[in-house]
């Protein structure tokens, strides 16, 4: 029985997670039965719209609901959503911009994002599917541009493969091409690898040519697993977009005609690019117009889409759901007496100041959450659902780190096959944390001191209290244990890489060691933890130990925020349900989740 409801709702196949105690059970007229994901703007819930129809209900963060500028922009975005042409994006079902916090609901579209489709297929799409993808996605953009609107945020996670073909989603930064609703400062740049030069340089107003550029980058990803200017979120990628040439050699090896079309779309001059309608014509002429796109998806992708569609048809009658009683939020954790007084007042003032400084940075990312937050194909529910297709073992869809434009650096050879799910990947591929005899703690005596003398209770003495969050983390930094403020490390041995926990920035006698981790967001609120050497933190399904392996996005490599505490959060593995922990001998392990254990609480630094 789904938490908070008397009706049994099986979330298997949806990718949604069960509701937590703090989650609402109803938003507006929509009963809420699961969590699809969360982001910098709010939380996305699986709601029930009508018998046989689910909805994606997005609720804005309460803090943002107090910002008048954000609310004006939010209202403008809702106006644009209502203007979307039929068949482009998800239908806006309802909204309440005056609610606190405000929310809106769109139709739940059963399908796979392009990123998930490559994972399900085990690599790039076949050529027939590529031409169909280009044709249908360009057709959606042409409809949008005909209404003088620009998407502004096209990327693999915003292109949805369905039983009917292709649907474009996430119009959170879409707006009129004439710029009559200007973006807030800095909102011009979305995902750098899929950003047009004029958008990267902040030129306004943008035209549909920016979307055509992004579409070409998306097609490169679909064809070879990488965009033409390299992956990443830093200024180096934007510099290549602005000044470098796209690397289309690998695409040309797949299909020379496709490479020619993409080259025209990637011209630095927006005026020199074809329109979306012209791209549709080229795709039909070169790739054929007989078969529908859905018929050309690989079998593994079609199977996953069918699983989503089967789930979507099971939505209960919302009127038949027994409304639960309102649940009060759990009381705040007890405050130590030492936390009271003038020092506590100063800390509260610092936190308020930090919030005011942080809000503009959050707002520039775009005013609205993704319109459709599609369930992740690697979620715990999906991996256990009958009929789901396991990804092929032909290799990961996500390439290794890029060193320069068009050059994909191979993943370290010591990683070998993925360690995340050996039963699905055709062997254990065990490295790192699963390597017998791997040493324990790293050598070194590096220590840290608390800024301003702020300490914490029950954790590492002399270290600042981190800010707890239940949102999906992003960005790059150190991951520290609340138990002793030591860092999660990627250590290189002769036998491979292993996750360890050691004094931050300490050295190892066994080989190179790095302490930086990138949080790579996945659909459904999950994330990957990618080390500086390019490996993904995973759980070995045979031993339940933490390990490092070649990134493939499988559920064994996916993590989510388990419990947010006053001192950090637990990181729960999607596949095993166990939480990342620091052992007493300096190893990174997984244990049954218990946020009362300081060794399971982590914070970013």
Automatic annotation (TrEMBL):
Keywords: ATP-binding, Kinase, Membrane, Nucleotide-binding, Serine/threonine-protein kinase, Transferase, Transmembrane, Transmembrane helix. Residues 426-437 have a biased composition (Gly residues). It comes from the Bacteria. ATP binds at residue 58. GO terms for molecular function: ATP binding; protein serine/threonine kinase activity. Residues 271-293, 316-348, 377-478 are annotated as: Disordered. Pfam families: Pkinase, Ricin_B_lectin. InterPro entries: Kinase-like_dom_sf, Prot_kinase_dom, Protein_kinase_ATP_BS, Ricin_B-like_lectins, Ricin_B_lectin. Residues 316-326, 377-401, 440-451, 465-478 have a biased composition (Low complexity). Residues 30-285 form the Protein kinase domain. The chain crosses the membrane at residues 354-374. This is Serine/threonine protein kinase. It comes from Actinacidiphila paucisporea.
